[in-house]
Amino acid sequence: MRQAGTQRSGIYEISKVLTAPARLEITLANVVNVLSSFLQIRHGAIVVLDAEGQPEIAATGDIPTSSQSAARGVIPKAVIDHIATTGMPFIIKDVSKSELFQAEPQPPWSSGTVPISFIGVPVKADNKILGTISIDRVRNDAAPFPADEDVRFLTMVANLVSRTIRLHRFLNLEGRRPIGEQERPEKPIIAQRGAPDRHPPAKIGGIVGDSPALQQVVETVSVVARTNSTVLLRGESGTGKEFFAQAIHELSPRRNKPFVKLNCAALPEGVLESELFGHEKGAFTGAIAQRAGRFELANGGTLLLDEIGEISPAFQAKLLRVLQEGELERVGGTKTLAVDVRLICATNKNLEMAVANAEFRADLYYRISVVPIVLPPLRERPGDIPRLAKALLDRFNKENQRELTFSSSAIEVMSQCYFPGNVRELENCVRRTATLARSSSIVSSDFACKNSQCLSSLLWKRTDGSPGGITVDRHARSNVMPTSSPRSDGSIGASDEVSSVKACDPNGSGCPAMESRLTQRDRLIEAMEKAGWVQAKAARILGLTPRQVGYALRQHRVEVKKL
């Protein structure tokens, strides 16, 4: 109760500071001073980011600054990027053991041998990151570490601060100044380019679709691309992991440097080591000349390691050393080579379960999973299927000098399909149907599934009544390592051994092929029932917007139940 009362008093004092007429950096510095009065902290800082994601204002309990160099000296840029990219609280019990805090020389947050803990939270408004709030304190091992209470309190403060930042930016954009500053000649702290939406999604060529799930990934990619942080792309086969890796490279400052990719599952361990690290002449039989590895070829650019979850434990240790030190030796060589590579990894394997089963090194997992991005399967964005299909058909027409089009019945068939192979299977379906089409307009009867010839249904397997296929485990979506038995809830990960699995009958009522070929009205009603007849929740289930769901309800004459 005492803690809650202290927090209420702190929020009240901070709200008074935020509503007082003053320049933004002065206001934020006063907020930090109030924080130091209600929390046991060593330092506090509020960093405001500009439209490019760079520190613009850094406010501490001392003198606020508005230069980027001074802002970066408050807390490490890597820590700011991590909080801004993930949009989640960041807690470190001992900063001396965190690599993010050791990237800059003579860090001001260091205190010799005394352990320092750190807590940082994002300042968000409408899911847009405007900055960060952070504190650090001397860690007392004898007392419990009150991270939950501090994160909750700092999050409430961040919500208030975000409104103040947006207000100042709005007034500056309108050519006005806050009350109390109208007579001051000083230049506005935040330029007019600092729009309220700090990270507008970048336009990525080739991305087709406007579902919320896909747009969230596009926005995350556009933010992550500006940094050098390691990215882990996760998702089912056929969701476009390699395509998004290429997009991250093209949007990054390394866009003019090489983009090198390697499928780790396609090569045995010995060959994989030579491919990645290179080899010297005579290092093994057939090594008739010196050869640079993929790390060397990607120096200054980006390296994509696809199927990272398939490498052996022995090779994981070798890869970890290169990622930690940024140095390598070619196979058969003794000269140490330094490399500067931005690493992107991709996998459809449940890495959390692999770590729990000692199949994947935990230290390597933490090294590559700095910014995990989960790509949504096609079934979670069915509203994108018509546009995707038309884009794929246009590509087919261009390659084959054809002028085929889809009829409305053809679009209806594809919209009802399950597509466990995601976009790759959709492309396969479009190309096969277009190749065998008997007229310039593709109709529903042209599809293999309408003629009992869809062999893909043999891949739709089930073990416990749910559709098969490799999926990203829920631990990947929550980004939390499992602490108990991975099988405690009966879920099946990507690395499970499936027993007594049978291919379903495409004509059977229990097959996912038939379940997925429900009419649009049936799928709409099913989603509404799952969502308790709340249109916003149903829209998230269907990968549509609430407006689209409302239109579909009226179109199919579905009466909304009042619960």
Automatic annotation (TrEMBL):
<dbReference type="InterPro" id="IPR010113">
    <property type="entry name" value="Nif-specific_regulatory_prot"/>
</dbReference>
<dbReference type="Pfam" id="PF25601">
    <property type="entry name" value="AAA_lid_14"/>
</dbReference>
<dbReference type="InterPro" id="IPR025943">
    <property type="entry name" value="Sigma_54_int_dom_ATP-bd_2"/>
</dbReference>
<dbReference type="InterPro" id="IPR002078">
    <property type="entry name" value="Sigma_54_int"/>
</dbReference>
<keyword id="KW-0067">ATP-binding</keyword>
<keyword id="KW-0805">Transcription regulation</keyword>
<dbReference type="Pfam" id="PF02954">
    <property type="entry name" value="HTH_8"/>
</dbReference>
<protein>
    <recommendedName>
        <fullName>Nif-specific regulatory protein</fullName>
    </recommendedName>
</protein>
<keyword id="KW-0902">Two-component regulatory system</keyword>
<comment type="function">
    <text>Required for activation of most nif operons, which are directly involved in nitrogen fixation.</text>
</comment>
<dbReference type="InterPro" id="IPR003018">
    <property type="entry name" value="GAF"/>
</dbReference>
<keyword id="KW-0535">Nitrogen fixation</keyword>
<dbReference type="InterPro" id="IPR003593">
    <property type="entry name" value="AAA+_ATPase"/>
</dbReference>
<dbReference type="Pfam" id="PF00158">
    <property type="entry name" value="Sigma54_activat"/>
</dbReference>
<dbReference type="InterPro" id="IPR027417">
    <property type="entry name" value="P-loop_NTPase"/>
</dbReference>
<dbReference type="Pfam" id="PF01590">
    <property type="entry name" value="GAF"/>
</dbReference>
<feature type="domain" description="Sigma-54 factor interaction">
    <location>
        <begin position="207"/>
        <end position="435"/>
    </location>
</feature>
<keyword id="KW-0547">Nucleotide-binding</keyword>
<keyword id="KW-0010">Activator</keyword>
<keyword id="KW-0804">Transcription</keyword>
<keyword id="KW-0238">DNA-binding</keyword>
<dbReference type="InterPro" id="IPR029016">
    <property type="entry name" value="GAF-like_dom_sf"/>
</dbReference>
<dbReference type="InterPro" id="IPR058031">
    <property type="entry name" value="AAA_lid_NorR"/>
</dbReference>
<comment type="subunit">
    <text>Interacts with sigma-54.</text>
</comment>
<feature type="region of interest" description="Disordered">
    <location>
        <begin position="470"/>
        <end position="508"/>
    </location>
</feature>
<dbReference type="InterPro" id="IPR025662">
    <property type="entry name" value="Sigma_54_int_dom_ATP-bd_1"/>
</dbReference>
<dbReference type="InterPro" id="IPR002197">
    <property type="entry name" value="HTH_Fis"/>
</dbReference>
<dbReference type="InterPro" id="IPR025944">
    <property type="entry name" value="Sigma_54_int_dom_CS"/>
</dbReference>
